Amino acid sequence: MKLIRDDLAVRARLLPPTDDGFLLLAAEAGRWFGHLPSAHTALAARLLDIAATVEAREATVFRAFLRAPGEGDELLTARGLHPARYDVVVLFRTATVDDALALRASAGYRELAETARAGSRRTHEVVASNAARLGDVDHGPNHVFLFNYFYADDRDTLLKVWEYTAGWFQQKTSLPNSALMRPLDGEPADYGIINHGSWPTLPTFLPSLLFRPSFRSFVLANFKANGIAAQPIVYRRMRRQNR
Questions:
Q1: CA-CA distance, 50 to 171, in Å (whole number)?
Q2: pLDDT of residue 189
Q3: What confidence tens digit (pLDDT) does each residue in 107-117 have?
Q4: Cα-to-chain-centroid distance, residue 31
Q5: What is the pLDDT of residue 164?
Q6: Which whole-number Å values give the CA distances from 160 to 152, 165, 173, in the listed order?
Q7: 41 beta partners
Q8: What is the C-alpha separation between 117 and 136, in angstroms, rounded?
């Protein structure tokens, strides 16, 4: 691991990983205009209705509203990987990884996945364990949410670099929580880890990504120096409307 600007390097304050299992379904349904997605809500609304019928500890549907600054387009091109442009995400959290595997085989989830595939150009489905965490992600209705889709040839290096960049987010944006999802062996390998976190408001973190120089000189620079593609997308939670 190469560490750029070690004067800023502080490891994240981590909590022990949980036994939670995660089943993630991400879909590219609408179009992107630079860093902004089209207002594509029809598929998300359908998936929200179906997800409500699937038994899991937690089921949450997200719709993207911003693609945050990232790193690694050249690396993805060299590896023949399509960049993450998922504007709809469904995340199930279960008590164990085995429960997540069983959930994927359930009739309710199969209906949801088939609906997502039929209504989008591309989907990504993966069962994952919890590799590390800053805290359980707060899925409060007014929060903003991050899914950062990471790729690296060496996942061990990726995990080490993530600890330092997560430390920067804790220090500079008061990141209160984050759950690092690590795909199980045999699952799709487009992303070595997927980081999921939340902030209570957009101004808590977005100005730091746009205007704080150390975001580029430390966070993005360390991703680049270590051969890491980081593809962060910011989402809002979908909520069912009263009928």
A1: 38
A2: 87
A3: 999 999 999 99
A4: 19
A5: 97
A6: 12, 9, 20
A7: none
A8: 29
Q: Let me know: does 4 contact 104? Beta carbons within 8 Å.
A: no
**pLDDT for res 94:** 97
How many alpha carbons fall within 13 Å on the CB side of residue 91? 26
At residue 241, the pLDDT reads: 65
- Please say whether the dihedral angle defined by the alpha carbons of residues 125, 131, 133 and 136, taken in this order, is positive or negative: positive
Joined together, the tokens standing for residue 143 give 């929060």
Q: Which residues of the chain have pLDDT under 70?
A: 40, 241-243
The pLDDT of residue 41 is 81
The pairs formed by 46-52 with CB atoms below 8 angstroms and a separation of 24 or more are 46/115, 46/119, 47/88, 47/90, 47/112, 47/115, 47/116, 48/238, 48/239, 48/240, 49/240, 50/108, 50/111, 50/112, 50/115, 51/90, 51/92, 51/112, 52/240
Pick the closest to residue 21 from 182, 187, 219 (CA basis): 182
Degrees (nearest 5) of the Cα angle 68, 69, 75? 120
